[in-house]
């Protein structure tokens, strides 16, 4: 099984001000390690494209996409997919890669979006997936506004379908989460878990493929230490990827 994931990295450029003087430092960070270890635990072949490389290296053809059983976006905005260097810098026509993903799923591929500040609509609507091919294939509709729902007090999702295969082998209470993207379930969606009536985990079929939406994060900050170090973390994500592929 081959999985492609785009996103889950960032670069910080920090200004340090000390009285009259200032200087800058830069830091690179990744939030992929926990999910990567989960895939490795089941010998699933994972290719990761860091956020700063997505515009240039994300697949440009349907044939390239079809090399993967599952494609995942996590904390990566639509502009990074829509604006390859040849288009943004050189003004050259390129394929609309969101539309390609729609065709990929329609033909039997599988797609998932994981929540975050640059997922779904995200912070200040900068995820900007509203009214795109990605919204069309997801089991959820997106709000036209900043869709973050912050919960520093911690919240528990309510599992609606405890017998769903993605929960195989998982027992006991789930860890809390610190926030999520607020979404609206489509009429034909399967809502697997929710919070206050908002779909937290949802899925459905599109064409011959499947899509999946996890409204929170699989890494900090919305995914706290209690989640990423949870004994069933690996099991849940392996189950999810396998369910997307298995028919």
From TrEMBL:
KW Signal (keyword) present: no
The Putative glutamine amidotransferase domain, residue ranges: 2-245
SUPFAM superfamilies assigned to the protein according to its UniProt record, in alphabetical order: Class I glutamine amidotransferase-like
CDD domains given in the database record: A4_beta-galactosidase_middle_domain (cd03143)
Any matching Pfam family: GATase1_like
Annotated Gene3D superfamilies: 3.40.50.880
Keyword Repressor found: no
Keywords: Glutamine amidotransferase
Organism superkingdom: Bacteria
PANTHER family recorded: BLL2462 PROTEIN (PTHR37947)
Record-given protein name: Glutamine amidotransferase
Organism: Sporosarcina soli
């Amino acid at each position: 099984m081959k999985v492609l994931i785009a996103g889950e990295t960032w670069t910080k450029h920090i200004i340090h001000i000390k009285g009259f003087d200032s200087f800058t430092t830069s830091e690179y960070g990744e939030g992929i390690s926990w999910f990567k270890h989960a895939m490795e635990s089941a010998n699933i072949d994972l290719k990761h494209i860091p956020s700063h490389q997505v515009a240039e290296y994300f697949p440009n053809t349907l044939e390239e996409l079809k090399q993967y059983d599952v494609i995942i976006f996590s904390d990566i905005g639509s502009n990074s997919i829509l604006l390859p260097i040849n288009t943004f810098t050189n003004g050259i026509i390129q394929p609309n890669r969101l539309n390609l993903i729609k065709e990929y799923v329609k033909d039997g591929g599988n797609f998932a979006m994981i929540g975050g500040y640059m997922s779904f609509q995200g912070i200040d609507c900068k995820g900007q997936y509203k009214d795109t091919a990605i919204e069309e294939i997801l089991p959820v509709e997106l709000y036209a506004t900043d869709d973050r729902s912050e919960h520093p007090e911690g919240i528990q999702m309510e599992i609606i379908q405890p017998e769903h295969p993605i929960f195989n082998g998982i027992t006991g209470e789930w860890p809390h989460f610190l926030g999520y993207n607020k979404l609206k379930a489509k009429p034909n969606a399967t809502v697997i878990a929710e919070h206050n009536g908002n779909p937290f985990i949802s899925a459905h079929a599109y064409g011959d493929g499947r899509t999946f939406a996890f409204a929170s994060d699989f890494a900090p900050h919305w995914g706290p230490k209690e989640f990423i170090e949870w004994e069933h973390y690996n099991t849940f994500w392996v189950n999810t990827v396998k369910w997307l592929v298995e028919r």
